Prior knowledge:
It is built from 7 helices and 18 strands. It has helices at about 1-10, 70-80, 80-105, 165-170, 175-205, 235-240, 260-265; strands at about 15-20, 25-35, 45-50, 55-60, 65, 115-125, 130-140, 145-150, 155, 210, 215, 220, 225-235, 245-250, 255-260, 275-280, 290-295, 305-309.
Amino acid sequence: NQLHGCLSIMKFIIFFIHVPFVxxxxxxxxxxxxxxxxxxxxxxxxxxxxxxxxxxxxxxxIKKLIPRQDWMKEFASTxxxxxxxxxxxxxxxxxxYKNNIHVLIQRFNxxxxxxxxxxxxxxxxxxxxxxxxxxxxxxxxxxxxVALDVKQLRYITPVQQGVITMNKWNxxxxxxxxxxxxxxxECVNWLKHFLPLRKVDLERRGSLSFRNLLRSKKLLxxxxxxxxxxxxxxxxxxxxxxxxxxxxxxxxxxxxxxxLTEDEIKSNNSKFNSFVNFFIIFIPxxxxxxxxxxxxxxxFQLCIIFILT
Length: 309
């Protein structure tokens, strides 16, 4: 389902690059937090992407927000105060996520071990129709925990352990109003603000992220304890004959690239279009009453922290 697919994106972000410029009419601006207990390093990481491409990164080891694109470096240098504030947001989230994982371990009646708590939030905007949408999802150990239905402005949960959290947040009108304003206005405004900055940088380099993931299957377990995920992109013959495609996978601050050959792009699915399937295997890292923390800020990130107590 949609929520499961979105939560899967927390673990891997896949996008494609090719030359020359390709027009993209639907844009996304997404931030994801991942907290991990145990002796894993780093125990917390945060990533923000624009149209599937990482624009900043933070983790509990480096303890500072790092711009990942040249244009983002320029943006960070023009407003040092805001960049510092966004770093502080992640520091606060890092501390709170340690507590959240401890609470969820008790709520799910689990023994100590490696567990993950994740949140992914952001918005999408169609620059042709002007339509926009927001999303905000919390996950635990790779499964849906609580999610915000932005249109209905109500939280939902697929698990019994999330009912207390859901009810608590649904009764917090101040929090809901804050999120409503963010997803209807602020998130999209920042997305629109960043697009021209990225465009200038792309025109300088002569390439663009080609984000056309049409099919993305859910995570499936393997017998050896790893997981797999398959994503499919449709590429027209005029595109693969004239351009070089590179599959790029970003995971926990590391980037993996693979240049796709013509044989890999071609398939027998259609005589008009080619389907490229990417089979990815990765190792898993393995409510409670909730409070909310909001402080006054002018950040380009969502100034809100969810605390499980």
